[in-house]
Amino acid sequence: MPENSASMTEKIQKIGSEPDVAAAVRKWRKKRGSLIMVLHEIQNSRGYVPREVALYLSRELGTPLASIYEALTFYHYFKLEPPGKAVISVCTGTACYLKGSQAVVDEFSREIGAAVGASTEDKMFHLQCVRCVGCCGLAPVAIVNGKTYGRLTPADVKKIVQEWRDHFKDDPA
Amino acid sequence: MPKVNLNEIRERKRAEAERFQARLFVCASTGCIASGCKAVMAAIESGLASHSLDKDIQVVPTGCMGLCSHGPLIRVEVKGRQPVLYVEMNDMLARLVVAEHLEPAIRRPDSFPGVPDFLLSHTISLDTPFFTEQVKVVLANSGRIVPESIDDYIADGGYQGLEQALTRMKPEEVIREILQSGLRGRGGGGFPTGRKWELTSKIQGPEKFIICNGDEGDPGAYMDRSVLEGNPHAVIEGMLIAGYAIGATSGWFYVRAEYPLAVERLDKAIKAARRYNLLGKDIMGRGVDLDLDIRLGAGAFVCGEETALIASIEGKRGNPTPRPPYPAVKGLWGMPSCVNNVETLANVPTIIKRGGAWFASMGTEKSKGTKVFALTGKVRHSGLIEVPMGISLRRIVESIGGGTATGKKIKAVQTGGPSGGVIPDRELDLPVCYDELKKLGSIMGSGGMIVMDEDDDMVDIAKFYLGFTVDESCGKCSPCRIGGKQLLILMEKIAAGRGDPEDLENLGRLATAMKRASLCGLGQTAPNPVLSTLNFFLDEYRARLRKPEEMGA
Predict the structure, then answer these.
(1) Which of A115, B103, B336, B431 is deepest in the core (most CB within 10 A)?
(2) In chain B, count of helices (H) and strands (E)?
(3) Are A96 and A148 in contact (CB under 8 A)?
(4) What are B21-63's pLDDT values in tens digits?
């Protein structure tokens, strides 16, 4: 759908009135150095930055859309597509690497059936590697939706995946 | 706004502490939270309540205590007794500590024999080298105070440095003190902090900024995170003193988004400081205006480079720009700016309080004071440590770290992360300081220190780091963008056993060219892990090369 069509304009308008978007714009509009902060708020509330939101921000903040996408695509933290409900971040910092994080990554990938950087088809899981979460004393480490698992071995993976399957079982995609 | 009376707060806190029979410190840093300290904390609180001890014992949730590999940690300090450190706690053990240690120690002090036998295996002596060989300046309060409590910080002497600077020193006197201390940038570069301040103080502009670099990107290091989590007010105080010295009109924290707890505690600390008029307009009634704000990174290693960091605050891609002009002349929004690392700033309040000469009395000729390291990898006591500059790597690894956890021989210690190099076992008597590490092809770096044993493959390690920097290259300059990728292709070829002798030569040549020609620190140092492993472990590379009989196959 072309972005200048009437229905798109309506869609952009509508998303701008949603609470998280409205609050982020209200909070940061008048401040300096705010673009990345606004994008963080959207990423945190939605798990990614939808195109309509980027278009709305461009209009409201007076920032060219290209500048917004320049930031969105440069920084690893931002996602352009909705990730799975349980985001598995396996630390691949040095300490974790030395203690076998690769085997843990591979096992997660096998267990959920999605590659690194991808989500499962049912949008239940998203697997990603992150560079050092600063828990090196507990290496290797993985974080799922904010919960940290330390001293992992591939044998722990099945249980963690099951834990999150159970967590979301009453909440179909 | 009323002027905050630091003395009054100190007295009040002292009187408060007097009322308690014992204090119980529970580490509540990211590492210990991951180990389960929240359940431990809940068990302690319910245990104290059920023994009616909650009025007699103060529970202090603290920042990092250092021994991260053995968390959750509890330190018990009963009046008139030696402190005890409990390790690897869980909720059940924590209840036992309350019932079998605290309860008898307080209710029946005369008949209390000490830590019961069955809990002894969960203690570590505070007389072990891990604790006794450390010297804490930056981490002095971390693990002793509630990080979010400004009163706790003030009670331990906090904001005295700021008070002293504002009431008794001119900005140039503050700079002189820092110059005299010999403090150098703790982010890795090692530029003299006093010189940076002096340069920025002389440049005029409608606005001027002090910026704190908390974009700790070395994968395997978490010093800055721990300082921000464990003692955020020290960094704020350092920022304020720095801002006063250079004449800043506002200050900016740039912190990794991957450190949510650090950001949360820093944010609370800024608000508390504002309430006490230690931040904002007319600070402490001395006519100085300075406010601080936080901006987050978004997962780009290159943003630790100061010009890329500035671009990122401005909302742009984190592309570095050539220096000069240095940020001191043309920085954030084109204004004169001074970028200092978290640990650098956390040193400042103590230097002002105790004097530059005191700080300069620690360390070596050119590297003064202490340095915080994240000691990790195959070491027994993995965690956060602070040591005087000049201590040997061997003492850090073998004495403080307790050698390898695997019982295997140490092969090498890596410092400086993806910008650093490996120091082989035979060189471990080297004193830790900026210049000696550089001589061996590594760098001090921000403080990652990774211990590797015989099982670790040096070719793989170099490839790992290179993979990281190739991922993180911003792509602006070709030596880094293309050079890094080509180096990685060569490394992958060698690691896969398909390398030829001339590949080793090309590795060295390419790495050297990339080092010389890259625009910023990322590209200039990215080849270091390759060069240093080539230098010290050439045999391992040779062993991976294609065998002559496979040639032409």
Answers:
(1) B336
(2) 25, 14
(3) no
(4) 999 999 999 899 999 999 999 999 999 999 999 999 999 999 9
Q: Where are the beta strands (DSSP E) in B1-44?
A: 22-27
pLDDT-derived band of residue B1, with 50, 70 and 90 as boundaries? Answer: low
Report the residue from A70, A93, A95 with minimal CB separation from B317: A70
Q: Is B34 on the interface with A (CB under 8 A)?
A: yes
Which residues in chain B have Cβ-Cβ distances shorter than 8 Å to A70? Answer: 316-317
Q: Which of B68, B90, B422, B452 to probe the A interface (max A CBs under 10 A)?
A: B68
- How many whole angstroms separate alpha carbon B72 and alpha carbon B88? 5
Tell whether B259 lies on the interface with A, counting CB pairs under 8 A: yes
Task: Look at A137 and B71 and tell me if their CB atoms are within 8 Å.
Answer: yes
Query: Would you call B316 and A95 a contact, using CB atoms and an 8 Å cutoff?
Result: no
The reported pLDDT for the residue numbered B189 is: 85
Q: Verify whether the Cβ–Cβ distance B34 to A132 is below 8 Å.
A: no
Q: Is B261 exposed, middle or buried (0-12, 13-18, 19+ CB in 10 A)?
A: middle
Domains of chain B (ranges, CATH numbers): 6-128 (3.40.30.10), 158-360 (3.40.50.11540), 370-453 (3.10.20.600), 458-544 (1.20.1440.230)
Measure CB to CB from residue B456 to each of A34, A93, A98 and give the nearest one: A98
Task: Give helix B232-246 / helix B160-168 axis angle, nearest 10°.
Answer: 10
Type of residue numbered B339: V
Reading the block at residue B98, the tokens are: 């309350």
Any CB–CB contact under 8 A between B359 and chain A?
Answer: no
In this predicted structure, what is the pLDDT of residue A134?
Answer: 81
Residue B226, pLDDT > 70, answer yes
**In this complex, do A134 and B452 lie within 8 Å of one another by their Cβ atoms?**
no
3-class SS string, A83-152: CCCEEEEEECCHHHHHCCHHHHHHHHHHHHCCCCCCECCCCCEEEEEECCCCCHHHCCCEEECCEEECCC
| C-alpha span between B194 and B198 (Å, rounded) | 6
User: B166-199 pLDDT, tens per residue?
Assistant: 999 999 999 999 999 999 999 988 999 999 999 9
Structure tokens at B258: 């991957």
3-state helix, strand, coil in chain B (%, to 5): 50, 15, 35
On whether any CB of chain A is under 8 Å from the CB of B431, the answer is: no
First to last CA, chain A: 25
At B552, the pLDDT band (50, 70, 90 cuts) reads low
B430 φ/ψ angles, rounded to the nearest 5 degrees: -60, 135
Would you call B30 an interface residue with chain A, using a CB distance cutoff of 8 Å?
yes
Interface probe with A: pick from B29, B33, B90, B222, most Cβ of A within 10 Å: B222
User: pTM to 2 decimals?
Assistant: 0.95
Task: Tell me how far apart the alpha carbons of residues B185 and B192 are, in angstroms, rounded to a whole number.
Answer: 6
pLDDT digits (tens, 9 = 90+) for B264-313: 999 999 999 999 999 999 999 999 999 999 999 999 999 999 999 999 99
Task: Return the H-helix or E-strand segment holding A164.
Answer: helix A157-167
Q: Mean of the per-residue pLDDT values for chain B?
A: 95
- Kindly identify which residue of chain A lies nearest to residue B295, measuring between CA atoms: A37
Q: Which of A36, A39, A136 is facing B222, going by the closest CB pair?
A: A136
